[in-house]
Design a protein that fits this description.
The chain has about 210 residues and is an all-alpha fold. The protein contains 8 helices and no strands.
């Protein structure tokens, strides 16, 4: 019991620490180095936080999280792929200016990276530590949304649509990915959905910041 409580406390503190650190780091790095600073922040987040902590908290259970089983829920594929199809359709109806081969390559690569390592930590680690405690797992969703708030503080970085799509999208879609992970007891579907959506959305974000 004591070990489980320590694990829960460590997980919560890791997320709170991330939010606190990024509240300082994002405006500092972007004010000093601009878009490169933003890239540095994201690389630190992906490779210095989500990946190692996701692996550490999931531990030996990691292998069992990577699956595409539906556990009798026929809605799972629709919930996972529906948002991707919808956003892709909207993007095709109003393609962003400045999409180049470089933008496409970066969007696919970074979208896959972000979707995978974020799900590893925010769904995989929280699912592993929470077990059957839905309240703790739900708190992970709250902190996932909270982590996106410091990104609004980035200096000189264009977020298409402003803060609302960034934070609001994290809230709505984060809830979808959390539901997928909780229902299937794995992260295969949430990774597929998250990475696919990122690949689409990142085209607009990258085009807005790299054009010209």
């Amino acid at each position: 019991m004591a070990r489980a409580l320590r694990g829960r406390a460590a997980l919560i503190l890791s997320a709170l620490g991330l939010i606190a650190f990024m509240t300082w780091c994002v405006p500092f790095a972007t004010a000093r180095w601009g878009l490169r600073g933003y890239g540095l922040v994201m690389a630190l987040y992906w490779l210095g936080f989500c990946l190692p902590l996701g692996l550490w908290f999931t531990g030996a259970r990691l292998r069992g999280l990577w699956h595409l089983r539906r556990r009798g829920a026929d809605w799972v594929p629709w919930a996972a792929l529906g948002p991707v199809a919808l956003v892709l359709a909207l993007l095709l109806l109003a393609p962003p200016a400045g999409v180049t081969l470089l933008v496409v390559a970066l969007a696919v690569t970074l979208g896959a990276l972000n979707g995978t390592v974020e799900e590893l930590y925010w769904r995989g680690a929280w699912l592993t530590v929470a077990g059957d405690d839905l309240r703790l797992f739900g708190f992970g969703w709250v902190l996932f949304v909270g982590w996106h708030v410091p990104l609004v503080l980035a200096v000189g970085v264009t977020q298409p649509g402003g803060a609302a799509p960034l934070v609001g999208g994290a809230a709505v879609l984060g809830l979808v990915w959390a539901a997928l992970a909780w229902r299937t007891r794995g992260i295969g579907w949430s990774v597929l959905s998250h990475a696919g959506l990122n690949m689409v959305v990142f085209h607009a974000v990258l085009a807005a910041n790299l054009s010209g």
